[in-house]
Every structure is written in structure tokens, then in C-alpha cells.
Amino acid sequence: MDNWTTSHDRVLAQRYAEGWMFLIEAARDMRTTGAIAPSGTALARALTEPVRARAGRPLDILEAGAGTGAVTRVLIPRLPRGSHLDVVEANPRFADRLRHLAAAHADADAAVAERVRVHTARVEELDTNRRYDVIVSGLPFANFAPGDIEAIMDRYLELLRPGGVLTYFAYLGTRRARTLLASRARVRRHRAAEEVLAAYRRRYAGGCRTVWANLPPAEVWRLQRPAATPTPAPTPPRPQPAAIGAADR
Ligand SMILES: C[S@@+](CC[C@H](N)C(=O)[O-])C[C@H]1O[C@@H](n2cnc3c(N)ncnc32)[C@H](O)[C@@H]1O
Predict the structure, then answer these.
(1) Is pTM beyond 0.85 here?
(2) Residues 6 or more apart from 223 whose CB is under 8 A from it?
(3) How high is the pLDDT of residue 8?
(4) CA 35 / ligand 1 centre spacing (Å)
(5) Could you tell me which residues are beta bridge partners of residue 208?
(6) Which atom of ligand 1 is nearest to the CA of 140?
(7) Residues 22-54, buried b or exposed e (16+ Cβ, 10 A)?
(8) Per the count of CB atoms within 10 A, which of 112, 116, 211, 215 is most buried?
(9) Which of 15, 24, 32 best tests ligand 1's pocket when mutated (most atoms within 8 Å of CB)?
(10) In sequence order, what DSSP letters do the residues of 19-67 get, joined into one string?
(11) For a pocket test of ligand 1, which of 62, 85, 89, 156 has the largest count of ligand atoms closer than 8 A to its C-beta?
(12) Measured from the CB, is residue 89 less than 6 Å from ligand 1?
């Protein structure tokens, strides 16, 4: 057996193991895991497009909700020199897996160890002073309450540098499936959550594309924090009404 065959077999075995791990975590907690399988390569590439668009410049990147690392695996080899990637994952078992993934890349390229950090945390509670050029969110917003979505989106916008870009995805067809299968209360909550996201998109939208080559197909949204506006000039003091002098009386 040649080297290519053995490394190809190893990759297949690893993907198979990750598929099972994802399924087990989804069975444990579907609300937080949000899917039964990791994203495919086409979706991972669409989510990371703003990183390729900024190729060559050092970047600060945040990946939230990385799961077994379908997107992380696309990001790590594309980190320009001088870049930094924070990977934030709420599920500690996924976070352990992501640390192994980063360590495996660091074995091949020592610079990766300096550039990549995995945090076991909920992204809205991430304690950092860093600001990011690109945020890639894998969070299952469709499962979240409207207030939770607002807290996370506001935190993302706070963490983005002016001009920075956020990408996130939503599976196609979830609304119809929920209308048929879920309780009325869940349908209402899902609609309210969609309205919250739509309001952010109206304010910050930079575009959307559909990735059909994923199971299920998904829409990838791209939001941009406006570039810094010049600090407004201080408002001049308002003229005071003329003092009423003796001659006016
Ligand atoms: C739909 S999966 C996406 C996984 C991966 N990005 C992919 O595309 O295959 C969502 C992931 O978000 C994680 N997650 C959910 N809520 C989170 C939160 N508040 N902060 C960080 N990670 C979270 C889940 O544990 C899960 O790994």
C-alpha cells in the first residue's frame, strides 16, 4: 500500500468517526448541536470566503460553534502569516476534538500552535479584548430563543472591527418542516427568531448565497459592520438668550 492510500484511508476513517460523534452529540442535545452531521466542504468554503477574499493580510478570526471542525479544517491552512484564530465551542467533547485537530496541524506546521486557540465556552461569554476581521458562526440559530439570538448577534458586532465581516448559515426548508411537525408555540418562537435575524440582515447585510451541495442545503449570510465613521465634530455651544438688561425692561 502506498503512502497516498494509507493517508486517504486515515482521512476517511477520521471523517467516519466524526460523523458518529456528531450524531451521538445531536442525540444528547439537539437544541445546542443543531444538526445531525457536520457541514460539507462546499458549505465550509462558502462560510470562509471572507478569509480567502482577504488573503495575504494578517487576520484575526473567530470561529464560533466549531463542532468536529469541518470549518476549522478549511480555515487553519489558509491563515496568513501573523494571523490569529480563536475557535470557540460550548460542548467540551467537541472542544477536545478541536484541540486534537489543531495539534495535528501544528505537527505539520509549527506556526499553527502559535496561531490557533481553542476555547471551551459559549461564544456570548467569551472573555477577550481581541477584535476580529472575520467571524464565522456555526451556531444553530433556528433552535435559539429570540433574546439569545440578540445577545449573540450584539456580541458578534461588538467583537468585529469596523469593516469586519460575519458569516453564518441557516438550513433551507426548516420553516416548512417546523410548520408541519412542531407545536404552534415552537412555530411562533421560530418565526420570532427569524424576524430578529432579518432585522440584523436589513441593517448589516452584505449578501447571501445558497449552497445546494450540502445535506441539507443551506443559505450563507454575510453581514458587515460599517467601517469607522469619522468622529463627529463637537456640537458648538448653543447661543444663550441675551441677558435682559435694564434698557429692555
Ligand atoms: C450546527 S453545529 C455546527 C458545527 C460546525 N461548525 C459545522 O459546520 O459542522 C453547531 C455547533 O455550535 C455549538 N454551539 C451551540 N451553541 C453555542 C454557543 N452558545 N457558543 C459556542 N458554541 C455553541 C454546538 O455545540 C455545535 O458544535
Answers:
(1) yes
(2) 165, 166, 167, 168, 200, 201, 204, 205, 206
(3) 80
(4) 9
(5) 221
(6) 1
(7) beebbeeeeebbbbebbbeeebbbbbbbbbeeb
(8) 116
(9) 32
(10) HHHHHHHHHH-HHHH--SSPPPHHHHHHHTHHHHHTTTS--EEEEE--T
(11) 89
(12) yes
How far away, in angstroms, is 33 Cα from ligand 1 center? 6
Residue 226 scores a pLDDT above 80: yes
pLDDT of residue 237: 57
Which of helix, strand or coil describes residue 165? strand
Q: Which atom belonging to ligand 1 lies closest to the Cα atom of 138?
A: 6
Cell match 447661543: residue? Answer: 239
Planar angle of CA 200, 188, 194, nearest 5 degrees? 20
Mean pLDDT taken over the chain: 89
Contact 41, 214 (CB under 8 A): no
* CB of 71 closer than 6 angstroms to any ligand 1 atom: yes
Judge: domain 39-225, CATH 3.20.20.150.
no
Cell digits of residue 248: 429692555
Residue 18 grid cell: 466524526
Mean pLDDT to the nearest integer, 154-168: 97
64 touches ligand 1 (CB under 6 Å): yes
Q: Are 144 and 65 in contact (CB under 8 A)?
A: no
Residue 182, all three cell numbers: 412542531
